[in-house]
Amino acid sequence: MQRQVQCDVPALALGAVAEQVSRLQSGQVVKAEGFLAQRSLKIAQLVMHIDKVTLR
Questions:
Q1: How many domains does the chain have?
Q2: How far apart are CA 47 and CA 36, in angstroms?
Q3: Residue 37 gets which letter from DSSP?
Q4: DSSP code of 39?
Q5: Considering only CA atoms, which of 12, 16, 19, 7 is closest in space to residue 39?
Q6: 1-52 pLDDT, tens per residue?
């Protein structure tokens, strides 16, 4: 059975990757690579930590 799943996941970029992301234009399509982690010890919400961004 195929299912369509949608969700919103906040993303975080640091250092050089953050600088690269800040130069992106609204509407640009990108591929973001990284990992998912819990926001903090007390907050179970997932956050994507971006390690690499490439334009598509």
A1: 1
A2: 6
A3: E
A4: S
A5: 12
A6: 899 999 899 999 999 999 999 999 999 999 999 999 999 999 999 999 999 9
